[in-house]
Design a protein that fits this description.
By secondary structure, the protein is an alpha+beta fold. The chain is built from 5 helices and 6 strands.
Amino acid sequence: MEDVSKIIAEAKAQMDKALEHLDHELTKLRTGKASSAIVQDLLVEYYGTPTPLPQIANIQVSDARTIVIQPWERNMLGPIERVIINANIGITPANDGEVIRLSVPPLTEERRKDLVKKAKHAGEESKVGVRNARHKGLDQIKKAVKDGLPEDMGKRKEAELQDLVNKYVEQVDKVVGAKEKEIMTV
């Protein structure tokens, strides 16, 4: 009985991770507003070691359309600029010798539709993660039934697991819908 409750808790934890991953992926999508999340995950060569950008520079959002990156060391301006260009985030860096400015351009209708597709794709990936957690949980419940768990208890736990999956899929749809609305708002 306790083992089966653990199975449900494990599945729930995996579903939570899928939802967290979705949130992380959606913060990377540019919505026409400046956000430090756009450059947060970029890795810059720092003395031969790929280092996350926030560890070698101060990243600030100075206004709704501008991100300012001020490296701790001036010699890092070039490498940071190259990484931003190579990251293909759709923003051209402006280096003034002190800081790098990123001006976030307003989104075109075509770019908005493309971002909505990316958001929906990230949502589908999260749903796959949720379903994988369900599949793993169901396998463990069936194994527990074989090992002596009463069959009706197994069926109840399977139903409980499915209810959990439905709840998480609905949550994913809600999050993606909100992001889609945010992207399409001009």
